[in-house]
Amino acid sequence: MHVQVFFRWLCVALGLLLAGCASHNYGDEQYRLRMATAGKDIMWVPSKLEIVHKMLEAAKVAPGDIVYDLGSGDGIIPLEAAKRYGVRSVGIEYNPDLVALAQRNAKRADLERLVTFKRGDNFVEDFSEATVVTLYLGESLNAKLMPRLLKMRPGTRVLSNVFRIESWIPDQEIRASTGDMAYLWIVPAAIEGRWQFSGFPDAKQVSMEVIQKKQIFDANIFFDGRRVARIEDARIRASELDLQFSHAGKTYTLRGQVQGSRFSGLLNNNPKTPVTGQLAP
Ligand SMILES: C[S@@+](CC[C@H](N)C(=O)[O-])C[C@H]1O[C@@H](n2cnc3c(N)ncnc32)[C@H](O)[C@@H]1O
Predict the structure, then answer these.
(1) Does the beta carbon of 159 lie inside 6 Å of ligand 1?
(2) Are 100 and 232 contained in the same domain?
(3) 72 C-alpha to center of ligand 1: Å?
(4) Quick one: 216 and 172 in the same domain?
(5) Does this model's pTM top 0.85?
(6) Mean predicted confidence (pLDDT) in 124-138
(7) Strand 226-235 to strand 216-223: parallel, antiparallel, or no bridges (unpaired)?
């Protein structure tokens, strides 16, 4: 384990010890669970209820969402998601005793209809149907999952208790009253490459070259082959593209939706100037 990550987990464990949580009884009569029970890639430490509620709130969980918790422990996150929002939720957990405990917890809460716990490895199981993914795994495991997370459907909300995801700047920082932190990221549409637009009134050919770093991008805008503007540190939120540039004393605002390799939106918010775009293959 990376030294920095080890110390972060040590702080978590010391914090829990000071809060008296380490001596609590977890689990049930069939499986007494000790704090910091060893796990495949990371030990079991439970998320606290307040931060779980704040994470689900920040994700704006709503009907139709499917919440996946990777490394679901005793099931607290999928169970709270189902209980508070009535949504389907799934926990993936490697330790079979924890899977069985979480299933019993679901039964006791009468949530079996909505919640499923699967015995499996986070790095093997398919969680691509999720619209919300929660993590409490540590920075290095988060980083290992990042390529898969970034390939999820644009708009998927990813939340991590305590730990960040390497170079991916959070869209929101979540703070509990205890000072505990969690983070939210929204998976952005992939827009890197050369876009060709139709519908601009001031040029025959309008194109845009995009360099994307997660939800942040730089772009050069070309009118009839000539670079007319540069945009730096713009953001794409899920599939919503919203950019502004100026050229020859005019300001252009382009707003719309990216769907795969296509864009459709409006120039200057005007329904009379619809713009479509195509990303070169
Ligand atoms: C810090 S606990 C978090 C538990 C729960 N998500 C929560 O927030 O209370 C991490 C969990 O991940 C599980 N785990 C570790 N490696 C795993 C892997 N490769 N696949 C699935 N689960 C794993 C551990 O058994 C443990 O239950």
Answers:
(1) no
(2) no
(3) 5
(4) no
(5) yes
(6) 98
(7) antiparallel
